[in-house]
Each structure stands twice: as structure tokens, then as C-alpha cells.
Amino acid sequence: MEVSQVQQPSSNGRRRRGGWITFPFIIAMTVGMNLAGAGWSSNLIVYLIKEFNVKSIDAAQIANVVSGTFNLVPVFAAIIADSFLDCFSVVWISSVISLLGIILLAVTASIPSLKPQPCVNGVCKAPTRAQFGVLYAGICLATTGQGGRAVIATMGANQFPDKPKNQTIFFNWFFFTMYVAVLIASTVVVYVEDNVSWECGFYVCAGANVVGLVAFLVGTPFYRRPKPEGSPCTVLARVVVAAIRKRKLQISPAENNFYYGKDILAKFTTPPPSTSFGCLNRAAMRGNGDVAADGSNKKPWRLCSVREVEDFKTIIRIFPLWSTAIFLATPIAMNISLSVLQALTVDRHLGRHFQIPAGSIFVFVFLSTSLSLILFDRILSPAWKRLARKTPTPLQRVGIGHVFNIAAMVVSAMVESKRRNVAAKSDALIAPISVLWLLPQLALVGIGEAMHFPGQLELYYQEFPASLKNVSTSLAWVIIAIAFYLSTALIDLLRRVTGWLPDNINHGRLENVYWLVTVVGVLNFAYFLICSWFYKYQNVKEVGHGESNSLDIQSSL
Fold first, then answer.
1. What is the pLDDT of residues 65-77, one digit of tens each?
2. Does domain 15-230 have CATH number 1.10.10.10?
């Protein structure tokens, strides 16, 4: 990673905005926001159980909803930044909201009347509605404030217009600092919360938020701040509305009946509408009074260009593959929250004086993912290219991720069976079994994530048209959000219809939950293979593979 020289004043004497001078301010905000967000959310399950007497499964459910919202709010923040406010405004407003939420959480930890009394002889008093209200208000504000995380990346890239190399360098630093901040928060800050005090840990998070916000605002005079250009989601909605309003219109094969845009060259550079999903072609058919004399669109909610219609069709074609990723991520979401509950019931000591915080257990997923990405990039991918004479396709990477995910669920079930048997023999809440037994399942989850998550991003970014690149990358975050919500619903369903998930997991059958999601994972993998069989790459040259069809995924699996 390298840094270009400092920008020079423009020829008219005014300082040119943007460039590397903005880098330290944006990176400071990246570190502050991620350190603050991960610092309180990583240990939320333990905080709910120990300080608010929330039952373990209920705490896992709440944490799942929070995690889902964590990954959903950045999408809404990006839409707001594109449509109404600029990136700068969304980032600093989000940071202020996050700070208010974290301060409120710190207050709940500091004032005894805002949380229930500690359990006495196994008897625990539930929180009052007022106590829950303050707690949930803090969680909602702190979670909503994390919406600016994704917008920071866009804002950083905006500082280097027409300089892809500099944008790439920035993204490398952005993701590096983001992972470092999350790693520190999940270890150091969580350790402070568990071994010093909760209020101290939360105020550390608040301090990181303040430092990031102040540093970001100091750089205000130097930022490029492009005006919002409108959300592409509005364009997609227009296609649907226009097609419905013209549903009775007879489709004509004549190219002159379709609208290609105001630019006269667009008609010669844009192919005619495809025959697939032909009902949508009505949205691009000219009607009386739809087009002005200068060729502009007078009724955008009744007429769309051919390019806009074809962009919408692209989303429809890729939707089946996108849906397979939901059921790929759901077992991962369940495994992360349930692993914390397992960690609370095993021996977490490493040596005599150090104990791994339960909220830090999924750090091993981050480590596994990071190491696997390096291994794949430096060794496995070049070896694959030498043997197969082409790089792995995105669908091949996703397919391999499916396999590792299934393996992780199988190992999770086997480890849980051993943990429960040891706990039953010892008749103790903390089973005399090391927390290191949980590492294999977490490592497999990390390896699978290193394969399928970048594969999905690559697939969506390559296959979506240029006008929808921002939407394409946000789809991966939507998947994560849906997965956490779906895992919450699935756990709640299993609690209602089975006895597998009591409050004390030593008396339940958590391994059956893992076996169930293993079966779901196998069925989903079969569904993925069917979808990949029929899917044809739209941008073959960009993908860099000789065949447009993705049948070669099966030979690699």
C-alpha cells in the first residue's frame, strides 16, 4: 500500500478539495466508529445475562436482532446519502446518534436503579419496563448510529475521482483498519468490560466515538462533497410502476417504439429489449405525451429507458442465486450466537490467570477468515490457475464456501454432544472441558466465509450493470441482516415446538439444532447447484472465463 504526494493548490489559487490530505481524518472516523460499535455489541449477550438477568436464549435472540440491524442500517444510510443528504452529512449524523446510544448504555451500567438487582441463590428478578425501556433505547440509538460505516467507504473513494489506483489503495487501508478496530474491540474492550467494569468499557467505546467524530469534523475544509444524484432504487421502482401502468399495452417488436434515452447515440449503442421477462418491456414503450420535443422523458413514472428495464431484469436473473446465500448465512448467524452460550458453560481459562471473555470467542472466526484470505490469494488461487488454466469463478468460490459451512455445522454438533455429555457427568454448570474445543467449528466458519463472502461480492459487482454497482455490493450486507433475523425466528420456533433450547443448555439438545441446520445447509447447497447450473454470466469478459455458463462449478466440487 502506498500514498501519493500531497495535493497542490489549483491554478486559480483556491485549495483543491479531496486527495490524500483527507485520508487521516476519514481513517480516524473508521477506527473510532468500528471500535465503538464492536466494543459494546460483541459482548451484548453477556451484558444482558449478567447485568439484566435476561435468560441465555433470550439474550442470544436480542443479540441476533441487533446484529441483523447492524448490517441493515448501512443500506438505508447509503440510500439516504444517495437520495437526500451527502455522504459527509450521513457520516457525522450517524456518529452523533451512535454516541448518544453508547452514553445511554454506559448510564445503564453506572446507575444501579436502571438495572435489576443481582441474582441471589439462583433467584433472579426480571427488569422492569422502565429499565428495559432505557436499555432498548440505548441499543436502538447505538445500532442506528452504525449506519454510517458503509458510507465512510464511499466518501473515501469520492476523494479520488477518476483515480482508480488511489481508490484501490484507500479501500485496502479502509478494510485493514476496520478489521483491526473490530479485533481490538472484540478482545481488549471486551476484556475491560468483563474484568474491570461495564461502565468503564462502555465509556471507552464512547471515547473512541468522540475521537473519531472530532477528527472527522476537523477535516471538513478538505473534503470533496459531491451532491446526491438520486438512488438507483428509485429507478428500479419506476420500471415496476411503468410496467404495471402499461400492462394492457400491446408489445410491439419495432425498435422505434421503445425509448432509449434523450441521447440520440443511446439508440445505436443500446441493444433492443431482450425477450426474457417480456412483460417488463412495456415500461420502455413510448406512449402519447411520454416524450418531450427534445427527446427527454416527460413522465418518468410511466416511461423508462431500455437500459433501465434491462438493468431490472439483471436483478431478477440473479435473485435465485442471491436467495441461496440467505440460507448459507443463517446457520453462521446461529452458530455465532450459540457459540457464545457454549463458551459460557465451558472452562475458558488459558493458564492460571487469563480467561477468554465469552464475547470474544468469535474473534477466532475473524482470524480464520483473515488467514484463509491470505492463503487463498497467495497460494490456492495461483495454484488453481496453473492447474485449470483459469482463475476460480465467483460461483466456484461460493460453492466451496457452502461445503465448509456444512462441515462447520457437523463439527459443531459433534463438539456440542461431547460438551453436554461432560457437563452431565460432572453435574456442573461449567463443564470441565476447554473452550479450545470450540475452535474447530469457528475456524471452519471462518474458512467458509473467506470463500463465499468475497465470491458473492465479486459475482454481484461483476454481473450488475454500471448504474447499479452500489446496489450490488449492498446486497451482501442485506443477506447478513436477513440471516440474523431468520436465525432469530428459527431459534424462537425451535423453543416453542421442541425442548432442545432451554435456558440452561446443559439440559437441552443443542446438538440437534446443529444437525437440523446441517440438513438445511445440504438442501440449500443442492438448490445452489441447480441455480448455478442454469445461470449464465452476463459479463463474460469481465469475469475472465471462457464459458458463459457456470457448469464448471460442479467439476471443482
1. 888 888 888 878 8
2. no
